[in-house]
Design brief:
The complex is a heterodimer of chains A (about 400) and B (about 110). By secondary structure, chain A is α+β, with helices and mostly antiparallel strands. Chain A contains 15 helices and 13 strands. Chain B has a single domain (about 5-105), classed as 3-layer Sandwich (Rieske Iron-sulfur Protein), CATH 2.102.10. Chain B has no helices and 10 strands. The chains are: A alpha+beta (about 400), B mainly beta (about 110).
Chain lengths: ~400, ~110
Amino acid sequence: MAAVAALPDDAEICGCNGVCKGKIVGAIKAKGLTSLEQVRAHTKASASCGTCTHLVEQVMALTLGDAYNPTAVQPMCGCTSLSHNDVRRLIKAKGLKAIPEVMQQLEWASSGGCHKCRPALNYYLVADWPNEYADDYQSRFINERVHANIQKDGTYSVVPRMWGGVTSASELRAIADVVDKFAIPTVKVTGGQRIDLLGVAKEDLPGVWSELGKAGFVSGHAYAKGVRTVKTCVGSDWCRFGTQDSTGLGIRIEKFMWGSWTPAKVKMGVSGCPRNCAEATCKDVGIICVDSGYEIHFAGAAGLDIKGTEVLGSVKSEDEALEHVVALVQMYREQGHYLERIYKWTKRRDRRNPPADHGRYGEAQGLFRPLRLQPEVRAGRPVVRARLGQG
Amino acid sequence: MTVVVIGKLSDIPRQGARCVVTPCGRIAVFRTAEDHVFALEDRCPHKGGPLSQGIVHGGAVTCPLHNMVISLETGYATGADEGQVRTFRLQIDGETILIDTTSLETLAA
Protein backbone atom coordinates (compact mmCIF):
# COMPACT_ATOMS: atom_id res chain seq x y z
CA MET A 1 0.00 0.00 0.00
CA ALA A 2 2.86 2.33 0.82
CA ALA A 3 4.20 1.71 -2.70
CA VAL A 4 0.91 2.83 -4.25
CA ALA A 5 0.75 5.83 -1.91
CA ALA A 6 4.19 6.89 -3.06
CA LEU A 7 3.24 6.78 -6.77
CA PRO A 8 2.95 10.17 -8.51
CA ASP A 9 -0.37 11.20 -10.08
CA ASP A 10 0.86 10.56 -13.61
CA ALA A 11 1.96 6.99 -12.86
CA GLU A 12 0.17 4.66 -15.30
CA ILE A 13 -1.93 2.15 -13.39
CA CYS A 14 -3.86 0.60 -16.29
CA GLY A 15 -1.66 -0.23 -19.28
CA CYS A 16 -4.50 -1.43 -21.54
CA ASN A 17 -6.43 1.82 -21.38
CA GLY A 18 -3.73 4.30 -20.36
CA VAL A 19 -5.26 5.37 -17.03
CA CYS A 20 -3.01 7.08 -14.50
CA LYS A 21 -3.34 7.20 -10.72
CA GLY A 22 -4.48 10.83 -10.76
CA LYS A 23 -7.38 10.07 -13.11
CA ILE A 24 -8.65 7.27 -10.85
CA VAL A 25 -8.35 9.35 -7.67
CA GLY A 26 -9.98 12.31 -9.42
CA ALA A 27 -12.92 10.26 -10.65
CA ILE A 28 -13.47 8.64 -7.23
CA LYS A 29 -13.62 12.07 -5.58
CA ALA A 30 -15.53 13.97 -8.28
CA LYS A 31 -18.16 11.29 -8.93
CA GLY A 32 -18.35 9.69 -5.46
CA LEU A 33 -17.35 6.25 -6.75
CA THR A 34 -17.28 3.49 -4.14
CA SER A 35 -17.01 0.19 -6.03
CA LEU A 36 -14.57 -1.41 -8.43
CA GLU A 37 -17.36 -1.77 -11.01
CA GLN A 38 -17.97 1.97 -10.88
CA VAL A 39 -14.27 2.80 -11.23
CA ARG A 40 -14.12 0.47 -14.24
CA ALA A 41 -17.18 2.07 -15.83
CA HIS A 42 -16.07 5.68 -15.29
CA THR A 43 -12.33 5.46 -15.93
CA LYS A 44 -11.82 2.13 -17.82
CA ALA A 45 -9.06 1.26 -15.33
CA SER A 46 -8.97 -2.59 -14.98
CA ALA A 47 -11.87 -2.81 -17.46
CA SER A 48 -9.95 -4.78 -20.11
CA CYS A 49 -7.42 -7.51 -19.22
CA GLY A 50 -7.79 -7.10 -15.43
CA THR A 51 -4.12 -7.51 -14.44
CA CYS A 52 -4.08 -4.14 -12.68
CA THR A 53 -7.22 -4.90 -10.64
CA HIS A 54 -5.26 -5.34 -7.42
CA LEU A 55 -3.47 -2.01 -7.97
CA VAL A 56 -6.73 -0.23 -8.74
CA GLU A 57 -8.22 -1.64 -5.52
CA GLN A 58 -5.24 -0.28 -3.61
CA VAL A 59 -5.74 3.16 -5.12
CA MET A 60 -9.39 2.93 -4.05
CA ALA A 61 -8.43 1.92 -0.50
CA LEU A 62 -5.92 4.77 -0.39
CA THR A 63 -8.51 7.31 -1.55
CA LEU A 64 -11.55 6.06 0.34
CA GLY A 65 -9.88 4.69 3.49
CA ASP A 66 -12.40 2.88 5.69
CA ALA A 67 -15.20 3.81 3.34
CA TYR A 68 -13.86 1.28 0.83
CA ASN A 69 -15.55 -2.08 1.27
CA PRO A 70 -14.57 -4.67 -1.33
CA THR A 71 -17.27 -7.33 -1.64
CA ALA A 72 -16.21 -10.68 -0.22
CA VAL A 73 -17.94 -12.72 -2.93
CA GLN A 74 -17.55 -11.55 -6.50
CA PRO A 75 -20.82 -11.82 -8.43
CA MET A 76 -20.71 -13.31 -11.92
CA CYS A 77 -21.76 -9.99 -13.45
CA GLY A 78 -24.09 -7.06 -12.95
CA CYS A 79 -27.15 -9.23 -13.56
CA THR A 80 -26.84 -11.25 -10.34
CA SER A 81 -25.36 -11.29 -6.86
CA LEU A 82 -24.48 -14.97 -7.23
CA SER A 83 -20.88 -16.04 -7.82
CA HIS A 84 -19.72 -18.44 -10.54
CA ASN A 85 -19.43 -21.10 -7.86
CA ASP A 86 -23.04 -20.53 -6.73
CA VAL A 87 -24.38 -20.63 -10.28
CA ARG A 88 -22.49 -23.80 -11.25
CA ARG A 89 -23.75 -25.57 -8.12
CA LEU A 90 -27.33 -24.40 -8.61
CA ILE A 91 -27.39 -25.39 -12.28
CA LYS A 92 -26.63 -28.96 -11.22
CA ALA A 93 -28.65 -28.95 -7.97
CA LYS A 94 -31.81 -27.58 -9.63
CA GLY A 95 -31.32 -29.37 -12.95
CA LEU A 96 -31.43 -26.13 -14.96
CA LYS A 97 -30.98 -26.90 -18.65
CA ALA A 98 -31.60 -23.69 -20.57
CA ILE A 99 -30.36 -20.13 -20.24
CA PRO A 100 -33.82 -18.53 -19.79
CA GLU A 101 -34.56 -21.17 -17.10
CA VAL A 102 -31.36 -20.30 -15.25
CA MET A 103 -32.17 -16.59 -15.38
CA GLN A 104 -35.71 -17.11 -14.20
CA GLN A 105 -34.99 -19.62 -11.43
CA LEU A 106 -31.98 -17.72 -10.12
CA GLU A 107 -33.75 -14.35 -10.31
CA TRP A 108 -31.54 -12.56 -12.80
CA ALA A 109 -31.87 -8.75 -12.58
CA SER A 110 -31.81 -8.28 -16.37
CA SER A 111 -33.82 -9.79 -19.17
CA GLY A 112 -31.44 -11.59 -21.51
CA GLY A 113 -28.36 -11.25 -19.30
CA CYS A 114 -25.30 -9.45 -20.60
CA HIS A 115 -22.14 -10.10 -22.63
CA LYS A 116 -20.44 -11.51 -19.54
CA CYS A 117 -22.99 -14.01 -18.23
CA ARG A 118 -24.55 -15.28 -21.46
CA PRO A 119 -21.35 -17.00 -22.73
CA ALA A 120 -20.59 -18.22 -19.20
CA LEU A 121 -24.01 -19.79 -18.71
CA ASN A 122 -23.88 -21.33 -22.18
CA TYR A 123 -20.55 -22.98 -21.28
CA TYR A 124 -21.80 -24.31 -17.92
CA LEU A 125 -24.85 -25.84 -19.59
CA VAL A 126 -22.79 -27.35 -22.42
CA ALA A 127 -20.36 -28.88 -19.91
CA ASP A 128 -22.90 -30.08 -17.35
CA TRP A 129 -25.53 -31.56 -19.67
CA PRO A 130 -23.63 -33.27 -22.52
CA ASN A 131 -25.88 -34.68 -25.24
CA GLU A 132 -28.87 -32.86 -23.67
CA TYR A 133 -28.27 -29.13 -23.95
CA ALA A 134 -28.37 -27.50 -27.39
CA ASP A 135 -25.58 -24.98 -27.73
CA ASP A 136 -26.93 -21.42 -27.99
CA TYR A 137 -24.89 -19.76 -30.74
CA GLN A 138 -26.39 -16.37 -30.04
CA SER A 139 -24.78 -16.54 -26.61
CA ARG A 140 -21.34 -17.07 -28.10
CA PHE A 141 -18.92 -14.28 -28.92
CA ILE A 142 -18.75 -13.59 -32.67
CA ASN A 143 -15.37 -15.33 -33.07
CA GLU A 144 -16.79 -18.64 -31.91
CA ARG A 145 -19.74 -18.27 -34.30
CA VAL A 146 -17.69 -17.61 -37.43
CA HIS A 147 -14.54 -19.59 -36.52
CA ALA A 148 -12.17 -16.66 -36.90
CA ASN A 149 -10.73 -13.82 -34.80
CA ILE A 150 -12.25 -10.36 -35.30
CA GLN A 151 -9.64 -7.63 -35.86
CA LYS A 152 -9.70 -3.89 -35.17
CA ASP A 153 -11.14 -3.04 -38.61
CA GLY A 154 -13.87 -5.69 -38.62
CA THR A 155 -11.94 -8.12 -40.81
CA TYR A 156 -11.01 -11.55 -39.44
CA SER A 157 -8.00 -13.78 -39.04
CA VAL A 158 -8.22 -17.47 -39.87
CA VAL A 159 -6.04 -20.13 -38.26
CA PRO A 160 -6.30 -23.66 -39.64
CA ARG A 161 -5.24 -26.43 -37.26
CA MET A 162 -1.72 -27.78 -37.70
CA TRP A 163 -1.51 -30.87 -35.50
CA GLY A 164 1.42 -30.65 -33.12
CA GLY A 165 2.91 -27.91 -35.25
CA VAL A 166 3.70 -30.33 -38.11
CA THR A 167 2.71 -29.59 -41.70
CA SER A 168 3.48 -30.77 -45.24
CA ALA A 169 4.20 -29.38 -48.71
CA SER A 170 0.63 -30.00 -49.85
CA GLU A 171 -0.81 -28.25 -46.78
CA LEU A 172 1.43 -25.23 -47.29
CA ARG A 173 0.51 -25.14 -50.97
CA ALA A 174 -3.17 -25.19 -50.08
CA ILE A 175 -2.72 -22.32 -47.61
CA ALA A 176 -0.74 -20.32 -50.20
CA ASP A 177 -3.49 -20.91 -52.78
CA VAL A 178 -6.15 -19.64 -50.37
CA VAL A 179 -4.05 -16.55 -49.63
CA ASP A 180 -3.76 -15.82 -53.36
CA LYS A 181 -7.39 -16.61 -54.16
CA PHE A 182 -8.77 -14.29 -51.48
CA ALA A 183 -5.93 -11.72 -51.62
CA ILE A 184 -5.30 -12.09 -47.88
CA PRO A 185 -2.92 -9.29 -46.86
CA THR A 186 -0.94 -10.86 -43.99
CA VAL A 187 0.37 -14.37 -43.33
CA LYS A 188 1.94 -14.86 -39.93
CA VAL A 189 3.40 -17.78 -37.98
CA THR A 190 1.83 -17.96 -34.52
CA GLY A 191 3.31 -18.82 -31.12
CA GLY A 192 1.09 -21.91 -31.23
CA GLN A 193 3.14 -23.35 -34.11
CA ARG A 194 0.64 -22.70 -36.87
CA ILE A 195 -0.17 -20.14 -39.53
CA ASP A 196 -2.52 -17.18 -39.23
CA LEU A 197 -4.18 -15.53 -42.23
CA LEU A 198 -5.12 -11.94 -41.39
CA GLY A 199 -7.37 -9.46 -43.11
CA VAL A 200 -10.14 -11.76 -44.33
CA ALA A 201 -13.43 -9.98 -45.04
CA LYS A 202 -16.33 -11.51 -43.11
CA GLU A 203 -18.23 -12.41 -46.29
CA ASP A 204 -15.16 -14.36 -47.51
CA LEU A 205 -15.02 -16.60 -44.43
CA PRO A 206 -17.30 -19.36 -45.77
CA GLY A 207 -15.26 -19.44 -49.01
CA VAL A 208 -11.93 -19.47 -47.18
CA TRP A 209 -13.04 -22.28 -44.86
CA SER A 210 -14.49 -24.22 -47.78
CA GLU A 211 -11.14 -24.17 -49.60
CA LEU A 212 -9.21 -25.01 -46.45
CA GLY A 213 -11.69 -27.80 -45.72
CA LYS A 214 -11.10 -29.34 -49.15
CA ALA A 215 -7.41 -29.47 -48.30
CA GLY A 216 -8.24 -31.38 -45.13
CA PHE A 217 -7.95 -28.55 -42.63
CA VAL A 218 -10.19 -28.04 -39.63
CA SER A 219 -10.32 -24.95 -37.46
CA GLY A 220 -7.42 -24.25 -35.12
CA HIS A 221 -9.91 -22.68 -32.66
CA ALA A 222 -7.55 -19.76 -32.09
CA TYR A 223 -10.48 -17.86 -30.63
CA ALA A 224 -12.09 -20.53 -28.51
CA LYS A 225 -12.57 -20.97 -24.81
CA GLY A 226 -11.46 -24.45 -25.67
CA VAL A 227 -8.50 -26.64 -26.56
CA ARG A 228 -6.07 -24.53 -28.56
CA THR A 229 -2.72 -26.11 -29.38
CA VAL A 230 -0.25 -28.77 -28.39
CA LYS A 231 3.21 -27.38 -29.10
CA THR A 232 5.92 -29.95 -29.66
CA CYS A 233 9.63 -30.29 -30.19
CA VAL A 234 10.90 -32.95 -32.58
CA GLY A 235 11.79 -35.64 -30.03
CA SER A 236 13.03 -39.14 -30.82
CA ASP A 237 11.95 -38.92 -34.49
CA TRP A 238 14.92 -36.73 -35.27
CA CYS A 239 16.57 -35.18 -32.22
CA ARG A 240 19.79 -36.65 -30.84
CA PHE A 241 18.53 -35.91 -27.33
CA GLY A 242 14.93 -37.04 -27.75
CA THR A 243 13.91 -39.65 -25.17
CA GLN A 244 10.37 -40.27 -26.50
CA ASP A 245 8.26 -39.40 -29.54
CA SER A 246 7.14 -36.00 -28.27
CA THR A 247 5.81 -34.95 -31.67
CA GLY A 248 3.74 -38.10 -32.01
CA LEU A 249 2.34 -37.79 -28.49
CA GLY A 250 1.53 -34.11 -28.99
CA ILE A 251 -0.35 -34.86 -32.21
CA ARG A 252 -2.19 -37.74 -30.52
CA ILE A 253 -3.29 -35.50 -27.63
CA GLU A 254 -4.39 -32.69 -29.95
CA LYS A 255 -6.37 -35.08 -32.18
CA PHE A 256 -8.08 -36.61 -29.16
CA MET A 257 -9.02 -33.36 -27.44
CA TRP A 258 -9.64 -30.78 -30.18
CA GLY A 259 -13.13 -29.41 -30.34
CA SER A 260 -13.67 -29.45 -26.56
CA TRP A 261 -15.07 -26.35 -24.93
CA THR A 262 -13.34 -25.50 -21.67
CA PRO A 263 -13.83 -22.71 -19.09
CA ALA A 264 -10.90 -20.79 -20.61
CA LYS A 265 -8.39 -21.53 -23.35
CA VAL A 266 -6.15 -24.57 -22.86
CA LYS A 267 -2.67 -24.51 -24.31
CA MET A 268 -0.44 -27.56 -24.05
CA GLY A 269 3.10 -28.60 -24.90
CA VAL A 270 5.13 -31.80 -25.13
CA SER A 271 8.92 -31.71 -24.91
CA GLY A 272 11.10 -34.68 -25.89
CA CYS A 273 13.56 -34.30 -23.03
CA PRO A 274 14.17 -32.06 -19.98
CA ARG A 275 15.79 -29.42 -22.20
CA ASN A 276 12.14 -28.60 -22.76
CA CYS A 277 12.33 -27.03 -26.21
CA ALA A 278 8.54 -26.99 -26.47
CA GLU A 279 8.39 -24.83 -23.29
CA ALA A 280 5.98 -27.28 -21.69
CA THR A 281 6.64 -25.90 -18.22
CA CYS A 282 4.67 -22.71 -18.72
CA LYS A 283 1.62 -24.32 -20.29
CA ASP A 284 -1.85 -25.15 -18.95
CA VAL A 285 -0.83 -28.78 -19.41
CA GLY A 286 2.66 -29.90 -20.34
CA ILE A 287 4.58 -33.12 -20.71
CA ILE A 288 8.31 -33.57 -20.32
CA CYS A 289 9.43 -36.86 -21.83
CA VAL A 290 12.18 -38.66 -19.93
CA ASP A 291 13.89 -41.93 -20.49
CA SER A 292 11.56 -43.75 -18.07
CA GLY A 293 8.36 -42.22 -19.44
CA TYR A 294 6.36 -39.01 -19.18
CA GLU A 295 6.32 -36.33 -16.50
CA ILE A 296 2.93 -34.60 -16.54
CA HIS A 297 2.84 -30.88 -15.68
CA PHE A 298 -0.01 -28.42 -15.32
CA ALA A 299 -1.01 -24.96 -14.06
CA GLY A 300 1.65 -22.96 -15.87
CA ALA A 301 1.12 -19.46 -17.25
CA ALA A 302 2.95 -17.36 -19.83
CA GLY A 303 0.62 -14.52 -20.68
CA LEU A 304 -0.71 -11.96 -18.23
CA ASP A 305 1.16 -13.88 -15.56
CA ILE A 306 4.36 -15.91 -15.82
CA LYS A 307 4.34 -19.07 -13.72
CA GLY A 308 6.04 -22.44 -13.92
CA THR A 309 4.00 -25.61 -13.83
CA GLU A 310 3.27 -27.95 -10.92
CA VAL A 311 4.08 -31.62 -11.42
CA LEU A 312 1.02 -33.86 -11.51
CA GLY A 313 3.03 -37.08 -11.57
CA SER A 314 4.97 -39.43 -13.81
CA VAL A 315 3.68 -42.31 -15.93
CA LYS A 316 5.41 -44.98 -17.97
CA SER A 317 3.36 -45.14 -21.19
CA GLU A 318 1.89 -42.83 -23.79
CA ASP A 319 -1.57 -44.27 -23.12
CA GLU A 320 -1.32 -43.36 -19.45
CA ALA A 321 -0.04 -39.89 -20.30
CA LEU A 322 -3.06 -39.28 -22.54
CA GLU A 323 -5.49 -40.63 -19.94
CA HIS A 324 -4.16 -38.38 -17.19
CA VAL A 325 -4.18 -35.28 -19.38
CA VAL A 326 -7.77 -35.95 -20.48
CA ALA A 327 -8.93 -36.66 -16.93
CA LEU A 328 -7.28 -33.50 -15.60
CA VAL A 329 -8.82 -31.31 -18.28
CA GLN A 330 -12.22 -32.91 -17.71
CA MET A 331 -11.97 -32.14 -13.99
CA TYR A 332 -11.14 -28.55 -14.93
CA ARG A 333 -14.16 -28.44 -17.28
CA GLU A 334 -16.41 -29.44 -14.39
CA GLN A 335 -14.93 -27.20 -11.72
CA GLY A 336 -13.48 -24.17 -13.48
CA HIS A 337 -15.19 -20.78 -13.59
CA TYR A 338 -15.72 -19.29 -17.04
CA LEU A 339 -12.56 -17.42 -18.11
CA GLU A 340 -10.58 -18.89 -15.20
CA ARG A 341 -7.38 -20.42 -16.61
CA ILE A 342 -6.13 -23.75 -15.22
CA TYR A 343 -3.46 -22.00 -13.13
CA LYS A 344 -6.08 -19.82 -11.44
CA TRP A 345 -8.43 -22.74 -10.89
CA THR A 346 -5.51 -24.58 -9.27
CA LYS A 347 -4.71 -21.59 -7.06
CA ARG A 348 -8.35 -21.50 -5.95
CA ARG A 349 -8.29 -25.22 -5.12
CA ASP A 350 -5.04 -24.71 -3.23
CA ARG A 351 -6.64 -22.07 -1.01
CA ARG A 352 -8.92 -24.75 0.42
CA ASN A 353 -6.12 -27.30 0.58
CA PRO A 354 -2.65 -25.68 0.72
CA PRO A 355 0.04 -27.93 -0.80
CA ALA A 356 2.40 -29.31 1.80
CA ASP A 357 4.95 -30.46 -0.73
CA HIS A 358 5.45 -28.74 -4.10
CA GLY A 359 8.01 -31.35 -5.02
CA ARG A 360 5.29 -34.00 -5.15
CA TYR A 361 2.41 -31.65 -5.82
CA GLY A 362 0.08 -34.02 -7.66
CA GLU A 363 0.23 -36.74 -5.04
CA ALA A 364 0.18 -34.30 -2.13
CA GLN A 365 -2.99 -32.67 -3.46
CA GLY A 366 -4.68 -36.00 -4.07
CA LEU A 367 -4.85 -35.29 -7.80
CA PHE A 368 -2.58 -37.99 -9.08
CA ARG A 369 -3.63 -41.59 -8.90
CA PRO A 370 -3.59 -44.41 -11.41
CA LEU A 371 -6.42 -43.72 -13.84
CA ARG A 372 -8.34 -45.66 -16.40
CA LEU A 373 -10.67 -43.91 -18.79
CA GLN A 374 -13.91 -45.60 -19.77
CA PRO A 375 -13.33 -47.80 -22.83
CA GLU A 376 -15.57 -45.68 -25.05
CA VAL A 377 -13.71 -42.54 -24.05
CA ARG A 378 -10.37 -44.14 -24.81
CA ALA A 379 -11.76 -45.21 -28.18
CA GLY A 380 -12.25 -41.55 -29.00
CA ARG A 381 -16.02 -41.32 -28.58
CA PRO A 382 -16.03 -39.16 -25.46
CA VAL A 383 -19.50 -38.78 -23.97
CA VAL A 384 -18.57 -35.54 -22.29
CA ARG A 385 -17.27 -33.86 -25.41
CA ALA A 386 -19.39 -31.11 -26.94
CA ARG A 387 -19.08 -30.72 -30.69
CA LEU A 388 -18.03 -27.24 -31.82
CA GLY A 389 -20.78 -25.50 -33.75
CA GLN A 390 -20.88 -24.76 -37.45
CA GLY A 391 -22.47 -21.27 -37.11
CA MET B 1 -42.38 8.56 -46.19
CA THR B 2 -40.90 6.05 -48.64
CA VAL B 3 -40.47 2.51 -47.46
CA VAL B 4 -38.49 -0.34 -48.96
CA VAL B 5 -38.82 -4.04 -48.10
CA ILE B 6 -35.56 -5.30 -46.61
CA GLY B 7 -36.49 -8.80 -45.50
CA LYS B 8 -38.54 -11.05 -43.24
CA LEU B 9 -38.48 -11.37 -39.47
CA SER B 10 -37.45 -15.01 -39.85
CA ASP B 11 -34.34 -13.91 -41.80
CA ILE B 12 -32.87 -12.68 -38.53
CA PRO B 13 -31.93 -15.05 -35.69
CA ARG B 14 -33.45 -14.09 -32.31
CA GLN B 15 -30.90 -12.14 -30.26
CA GLY B 16 -29.01 -11.49 -33.48
CA ALA B 17 -28.82 -9.20 -36.48
CA ARG B 18 -28.56 -9.12 -40.23
CA CYS B 19 -27.19 -6.25 -42.29
CA VAL B 20 -28.55 -4.13 -45.09
CA VAL B 21 -25.87 -2.64 -47.30
CA THR B 22 -26.77 0.76 -48.71
CA PRO B 23 -24.72 3.12 -50.90
CA CYS B 24 -24.27 5.27 -47.81
CA GLY B 25 -23.15 2.54 -45.42
CA ARG B 26 -24.23 -0.60 -43.61
CA ILE B 27 -27.29 -0.83 -41.39
CA ALA B 28 -27.67 -3.51 -38.74
CA VAL B 29 -31.20 -4.85 -38.23
CA PHE B 30 -31.55 -6.47 -34.81
CA ARG B 31 -34.19 -8.91 -33.58
CA THR B 32 -34.61 -9.25 -29.80
CA ALA B 33 -35.73 -12.32 -27.86
CA GLU B 34 -39.25 -10.83 -27.85
CA ASP B 35 -39.24 -10.31 -31.63
CA HIS B 36 -38.84 -6.54 -31.53
CA VAL B 37 -36.77 -5.22 -34.43
CA PHE B 38 -34.48 -2.20 -34.51
CA ALA B 39 -32.26 -0.69 -37.21
CA LEU B 40 -29.01 1.03 -36.29
CA GLU B 41 -25.94 2.17 -38.16
CA ASP B 42 -23.52 -0.78 -38.03
CA ARG B 43 -20.70 1.31 -36.55
CA CYS B 44 -19.89 1.57 -32.85
CA PRO B 45 -19.42 5.23 -31.77
CA HIS B 46 -16.25 4.19 -29.92
CA LYS B 47 -13.94 2.86 -32.70
CA GLY B 48 -16.30 1.89 -35.51
CA GLY B 49 -16.81 -1.78 -34.57
CA PRO B 50 -19.55 -3.88 -36.25
CA LEU B 51 -22.44 -3.79 -33.79
CA SER B 52 -24.30 -6.38 -35.89
CA GLN B 53 -21.84 -8.98 -34.64
CA GLY B 54 -22.26 -8.27 -30.95
CA ILE B 55 -24.16 -10.25 -28.36
CA VAL B 56 -27.77 -9.04 -28.13
CA HIS B 57 -29.25 -9.00 -24.61
CA GLY B 58 -32.59 -7.52 -23.59
CA GLY B 59 -32.86 -4.28 -25.55
CA ALA B 60 -29.14 -3.72 -26.04
CA VAL B 61 -26.14 -4.99 -27.98
CA THR B 62 -22.53 -5.21 -26.81
CA CYS B 63 -19.96 -4.19 -29.41
CA PRO B 64 -17.59 -7.10 -30.12
CA LEU B 65 -14.49 -4.88 -30.22
CA HIS B 66 -14.36 -3.23 -26.78
CA ASN B 67 -17.68 -4.14 -25.10
CA MET B 68 -19.48 -0.80 -25.39
CA VAL B 69 -23.18 -1.46 -24.67
CA ILE B 70 -25.60 0.31 -27.05
CA SER B 71 -29.35 0.70 -26.55
CA LEU B 72 -31.18 -0.69 -29.59
CA GLU B 73 -34.04 1.76 -29.22
CA THR B 74 -32.12 5.00 -28.85
CA GLY B 75 -28.67 4.14 -30.24
CA TYR B 76 -27.09 5.68 -27.11
CA ALA B 77 -24.18 4.05 -25.29
CA THR B 78 -25.34 2.94 -21.83
CA GLY B 79 -23.84 3.29 -18.36
CA ALA B 80 -21.00 5.73 -17.99
CA ASP B 81 -20.04 5.57 -21.69
CA GLU B 82 -20.78 8.33 -24.20
CA GLY B 83 -21.69 8.14 -27.85
CA GLN B 84 -24.64 7.51 -30.08
CA VAL B 85 -25.30 5.68 -33.33
CA ARG B 86 -27.93 6.64 -35.85
CA THR B 87 -31.20 4.75 -35.71
CA PHE B 88 -33.60 4.20 -38.57
CA ARG B 89 -37.33 3.79 -38.63
CA LEU B 90 -38.70 0.38 -39.49
CA GLN B 91 -42.21 -0.67 -40.40
CA ILE B 92 -43.36 -4.20 -39.65
CA ASP B 93 -46.09 -5.62 -41.86
CA GLY B 94 -46.78 -9.12 -40.56
CA GLU B 95 -43.56 -10.99 -41.25
CA THR B 96 -42.15 -8.32 -43.57
CA ILE B 97 -39.69 -5.68 -42.44
CA LEU B 98 -39.59 -2.38 -44.30
CA ILE B 99 -37.26 0.58 -43.79
CA ASP B 100 -38.06 4.26 -44.11
CA THR B 101 -35.58 5.45 -46.74
CA THR B 102 -35.91 9.19 -46.15
CA SER B 103 -33.44 9.05 -43.26
CA LEU B 104 -30.79 7.08 -45.18
CA GLU B 105 -28.97 10.08 -46.66
CA THR B 106 -27.80 10.96 -43.18
CA LEU B 107 -25.69 7.78 -42.99
CA ALA B 108 -21.91 8.28 -42.84
CA ALA B 109 -20.19 7.24 -46.05
